[in-house]
Amino acid sequence: MIEKPEKKIIEHANGGKGHLILEPIAGPDILKDKCRLYVKATLEKGCSMGIHQHKGDGEIYYILSGKGLYTDNDTTYEMKPGDAAFCKNGNRHGIENIGDEDLVFMGLVIYDK
Hints:
Elements lengths: L7 E4 L7 E8 L1 H4 L3 E9 L4 E6 L3 E9 L2 E5 L2 E5 L4 E4 L4 E6 L5 E9 L2
Antiparallel strand pairs: 1-2, 2-3, 3-10, 4-9, 5-8, 5-10, 6-7, 6-9
C-alpha cells in the first residue's frame, strides 16, 4: 500500500480563479526520476488553474467527473469524463471548471528525457 502525502489546497493556482485541491497519489519516493507529480485534482464550480508553461516535463489530464474548458496553447475546447489531454514540454495549458459540479481529474507530470 502506498502512503499518500497530505492533501494540498492552492489558492489562485498559476494565476487561476479560486482554489485547486490536490490529493497526491504518489510522492517522489515512488515516482523517482520518471515523474514529478501524480495527483487527483479538484476544481470547484467557478475555479480554474491558470495557463502555465511546462519546461522539462509534460502533463496528462484525465477527466473523472464534471465539465472543463481546457486551453492548450491557443486552442480551447470542452472536456468531459473520459477525455484526456497532453501538454508537451514547452507548451502551455490551463483548465477551468465550467460546470455546476466539481471538476475532478487526474494529473500526471512526466519528465521529458
